[in-house]
Structures are given as C-alpha cells and as structure tokens.
Amino acid sequence: MLNQFLTQFLDHLRYERNVSTHTLRNYESDLRQFVDYLTPPETARPAAGHSSAAAKRKEPAIEQIDHLTIREWLSSLHSDHKKKTSIARKLAALRTFFQFLVREGVVEQNPAKLVATPRKEKKLPVHLSIEDAVRFIETPDSETDLGKRDRAILELLYATGVRVSELVQLNLRDINFKSKLLRVFGKRRKERIVPFGDPAAKALKDYLDVRERFLMNAPATKRDAQPLILNYQGTRMTTRSVGRLVEKYIRLCAGIHDISPHALRHSFATHLLDGGADLRDIQELLGHARLSTTQIYTHVSMEKLIEVYDKAHPKA
What we know:
Helix content: 55-70%
Strand order of the largest sheet: 1-2-3
Number of helices: 14
C-alpha cells in the first residue's frame, strides 16, 4: 500500500503542482528510501543464531506509521553519517507526503510534524586574509580586454561585498563615480546603497572602454546598453560565468584554494569588522534582513583573536 500511495503523491506533484523534474526526483528518492527502510528485502533472512532488524520489520499499515517510526529512520540515517541537511530534506519530504495523505483522507494527522528538524551545522564562512585578497584581485592581466573586465569584477566584489547575483544584475546607471556609490538591488528587489573605493573606481573606468567594444560584438537584435558587466559576446554575464571566472583565477593564484565568489563577500565583511566597523553598518552594507545573519562574522573574528592570543601570550 505504501508504494501505491507514493505513486499517487508523485503524480500529484507532477500533474497538479507541476514541480520541476529535479524536485520530483528528490522527492521520489527520499520517500523511496523511507519505504525501503520499512520494507525489508524479500531475500533478507537472519543467519542461524543471529537476529536482523531488517528481517524483523514488516511493512506497517499507513495509519500505523507514527512520529516514533520516523524518528527511528532519521536516527538510522544519522548513524550512517548522513549530513544534517540531507536528513532535514528527507523529513521535509515526509511532511509534504503525509500532508497529502491527510488531505486525501487516508490518515487523520501528519506524524512528521511531530518530529523536530535537525539543526543545521553552522559553517564559518571562508574568507581571505587582506594580503591574499589583494593578491587574488590583482591576478587578472590588465593589459588585455578580458583581464580589465575581470579585474573590475573582482575589485567590485571585494570593495562592496555584493552577491554575485547582484553584481550581474547591475546596470551602468547604478554607478555614481562622483560619489563612489553603487545602487544594488538585493533579495526581493530591496534597494541599498554601497560605497566603493579608489581601486574599484579605477578598475571600473579602465573596463568601460573595453565594455563598449564588447557591446559592439552583440547582434543588433540583442544589443542592450544597460548591463554593466558584459561577456565577450556583448551580452549580460551570468552568475555561472562569474563563478567560472573565479575558479580560473584560483588556479592561477598560487596558495589560494577552495574559495568561491562568495569568499570575497565574506572577506569584505570580516575585514570591515576587524577594522572596527559596527556590526549593524555591515548588516546594512551586506543587505541582510536580520542582524543574526551578520553575526556569523563575529565568530570568524573571534577565531582570529584566539589564534593571535595563543601565539602571542606567554601563558596561552
């Protein structure tokens, strides 16, 4: 019966909710794992003198599946060293599945709602030292057209802390060179103003002549003079293209590994905090809705402080 209800649920997602193929595949994978946990393989039999938890299990009736059953499954996933994010996703899939069954009148209540979502591990953001940030930003060859553009991208990411998705959406009119201010549209199109310094201003001005040449490469039907950051074909760069660009310069810059475009945003915030900037000002510059999101950088700075203490204090 479980498989029958699962098929009905997947059809509901596919035809009524019109979810993406990727989302549908994730739901099916997660829920099939749950069904497999409850239903032992036909060939699974305990050896003489031994017991098997899988062999003892029998597929329960759908109304017999309670929050304890779900907790046991999540516990087994934890024992198998599954990531908390993966376990949380599987629990979310179960909640949606049982909510569907409640709506269809198959069960009276959703047992998955009684199970707490595992707390996600808080990973400290990866950031560069000031020296490495400067060295990384100066990696592009500024004698070439693409190098000038790439230098402007890296300078702007570090100078303003904007997200890559915000960077690629910038238009030429969003830059005020006189005041050295950038108008950024963040999540939910919330507008904020961010300052930038002389190095970023110079890199941007060096790039603008190149930008005009890039723009002329675009077909007349696709030519748009508004976007700030253009690819060689004269059209707006994508987030993925900037990601590949950063990976390229990681390979070229010796001693720098495992960073993403977001690392420059993290470096921007960490270096401001280390320099004495107020946390609420950093929150405003980053476009965070909640101060708690920005507070992760205090942990980064505290780690650095402890490291300095351990190295410098004679009684550390």
